[in-house]
Amino acid sequence: MKKIETGIQDLYIIESQVFGDQRGWFVETYNKQKFNENGITYDFLQDNHSFSTKKGTLRGLHFQNDPMGQTKLVRCTKGKILDVAVDIRKGSPTYLKSFSIELTEDNKKQLLIPIGFAHGFLTLTDNVEVQYKVDNLYSKEHDRSIRYDEPLFDIKWNIVDPILSDKDVNAPYLSQSDVNFIFREIKK
Where are the alpha helices (DSSP H) in the chain? Predict the structure, then answer.
């Protein structure tokens, strides 16, 4: 397993070793001991799996306010996505900075997104499956969204008319949001 810096503190790309032969391939996507050895000590409690039928589906930007904030370990297991994380931790040296990466079934990369980030993705193919671990359970009371096209985030989605849920169409801009994250050093 390799942990790769993104330029945003606490946000990492995870690359796992892929073992392949004439039969196909095998990859270990999560190993608590190896993650701990790399300073990643989150206690994941829940696995989520989403399916999007159409290219151009945009899900996000989502997060849960504290005290129910969630760290996510995201991967694309079918198709291809543009995965985006935005630092919304007030006081962070990278506050409002976004990071984007293509996650695909072929590259098998994962994005580790800590508490204090808004997260979203755009499907770049039809029939996309995304799986992710979280370190806190879902809480409807704390579930929040911010507009995917928030100008302060300067995200290059490269799409004019994405397919959105009602929740994402009606999401507020950051200035109208009650986001409550404060930057704090994560213990390694």
Answer: 32-37, 166-169
Amino acid at 95: Y
Length of the chain as a residue count: 188
- Please give the Cα distance from 47 to 27 (Å, whole number): 17
Percent of the chain exceeding pLDDT 90 equals: 97
Average pLDDT (72-101) is 98
Say what the pLDDT of residue 135 is. 98
d(CA 109, CA 155): 20
Q: Catalytic pick from 12, 42, 119, 132?
A: 132
What are phi and psi for residue 84, nearest 5 degrees?
-130, 135
Name the catalytic one among 42, 62, 119, 148. Answer: 62
* Number of neighbouring beta carbons within 10 Å of residue 100: 18
As beta bridge partners, residue 62 has 119, 145
Q: Is the pLDDT of residue 136 over 80?
A: yes
* pLDDT of the residue at 187: 57
Map out the domains of the chain as residue ranges: 2-176
Clarify whether 132 is annotated catalytic. Answer: yes
CATH 2.160.10.10 describes domain 2-176: no
Question: How crowded is the C-beta side of 113, counted as CA atoms within 13 Å?
Answer: 33
E strand or H helix that includes residue 27:
strand 24-27
